[in-house]
Design a protein that fits this description.
alpha+beta; Butyryl-Coa Dehydrogenase, subunit A, domain 1; flavoprotein; flavin adenine dinucleotide binding; four-stranded antiparallel sheet; Butyryl-CoA Dehydrogenase, subunit A, domain 2; globular; oxidoreductase; four-stranded mixed sheet; 11 helices; Mito_Isobutyryl-CoADH; Alkylation response protein AidB-like acyl-CoA dehydrogenase; single chain; Butyryl-CoA Dehydrogenase, subunit A, domain 3; about 50% helix
Length: about 375
């Protein structure tokens, strides 16, 4: 009866591989990356050697062709060490998947070999200064000029901007609204591409975030991913997986903080005994563990639905993202409270996770937008 809820042996092996990589290459260094704003490109590239740069890229294109549950397991494991770095790897995977899933043979041959090895890194460019939640209102325009497109506009809050070499970019090639949006692969070194200043963020310090500016950038027509006018559909399909991954990043970070809180409350003594012996502490930890397991169960189910292309996959991805990210932040906040004043200090990892997880309820679609998606699915005739 319980077998349907168990991970397979292969999934457990993947999970354990990601956990070992995290313990060896991420956790010991994450605090320094955060404090000094270090972008750990060597560590990220090392993840590619395990296949983690192309988790759901097809084997024909050099990927490891896993499902969305396996991807969630990897992201959750790596976030136990550093949610910021894990989320960055998730974004690269989303961009690589879009090229593999919707690109022509020429586009795949041109970009995927270097993306699979992370010799080149990829960003996903949808959000603009004036269009966040209303992504279909984007203004970055591409105008046809012979066989090329001339791109003008800007993208905001782009992870990896300035460092990454490849930008999978949603542009307006036609009418207003979603049907006028197409997807182009734009390279860092193309004339007219520039970047804003590195944003000074609350968290996610191990990855750069900048504005990407396109000033009359000439992009070959062959760099279009999918057909003209299909960009918005491609972007939304990518977000189903991205939402699962960012939810998984919240689960991994929250699990780390729960474990840290359990260890701390066992050691910390007040009134002559460990604070873990107090019923209030036990009840608090029990609620944190219960809520985390519930969010994990929903996220794993949603991941299975996205892999199976189930009709309700988008609804479940939105539900899981909303619950996992809200729960993750809540668990970390309570872990900080259990640490008392020490939780507020950078000597302990809790405050870093508190900062890193806060943005998860905003990106890949705000949690208010997740509620809109679910609500519309529930009430449409």
């Amino acid at each position: 009866m319980t077998n349907q809820f168990d991970l397979t042996d292969d999934q457990r092996e993947i999970q354990e591989l990601a956990r070992r990589f995290t313990a060896d290459r991420i956790t010991p260094h994450a605090a320094e990356w955060d404090e000094k704003h270090i972008f750990p490109r060597d560590t990220i590239k090392a993840a590619a050697e395990l296949g983690f740069a192309a988790i759901y890229v097809s084997e024909e294109s050099g990927g490891i062709a896993l499902g969305r549950l396996e991807a969630a397991l990897i992201m959750e494991a790596m976030s136990y060490g550093c949610p910021s770095t894990s989320a960055f790897i998730s974004i690269h995977n989303m961009a690589a998947w879009m090229i593999d899933r919707f690109g022509s043979a020429a586009v795949k041959d041109k970009y995927l070999p270097d993306l699979v090895t992370m010799d080149r890194l990829a960003s996903y460019c949808l959000t603009e200064p004036g269009s966040g939640s209303d992504a279909a209102a984007l203004k970055t325009r591409a105008v046809r000029d012979g066989d090329d497109w001339i791109v003008t506009g800007s993208k905001q809050f782009i992870s990896g901007a300035g460092e990454n070499e490849v930008y999978v970019t949603m542009v307006r090639t036609g009418e207003e609204g979603p049907k006028g949006i197409s997807c182009l692969v734009i390279e860092k070194d193309m004339p007219g591409v520039s970047f804003g200043a590195n944003e000074k963020k609350l968290g996610w310090h191990s990855q750069p975030t900048r504005q990407v500016i396109f000033d009359g950038v000439r992009v070959p027509g062959a760099n279009m991913v999918g057909g003209e006018g299909e960009g918005f559909r491609i972007a939304m399909m990518g977000l189903d997986g991205g939402r699962l991954n960012i939810g998984a990043c919240s689960l991994g970070g929250a699990q780390r903080c729960l474990d840290e809180a359990i260890a701390y409350t066992r050691d910390r003594k007040q009134f002559g005994k460990p604070i873990a012996d107090f019923q209030n502490t036990q009840f608090m930890l029990a609620d944190m563990a219960t809520e985390l397991e519930a969010a994990r169960a929903l996220l794993y189910m949603a991941a299975a639905k996205v892999t199976a292309n189930a009709p309700d996959k988008t609804k479940f991805a939105a539900m899981a993202k909303r619950l996992a990210t809200d729960t993750g932040s809540s668990v970390v906040d309570r872990a900080l409270q259990l640490h008392g004043g020490y939780g507020y200090l950078q000597d302990y990892p809790i405050e870093r996770f508190w900062r890193d997880l806060r943005v998860h309820s905003i990106l890949e679609g705000t949690n208010q937008v997740m509620r809109m998606i679910v609500g519309r699915e529930l009430t449409r005739q």
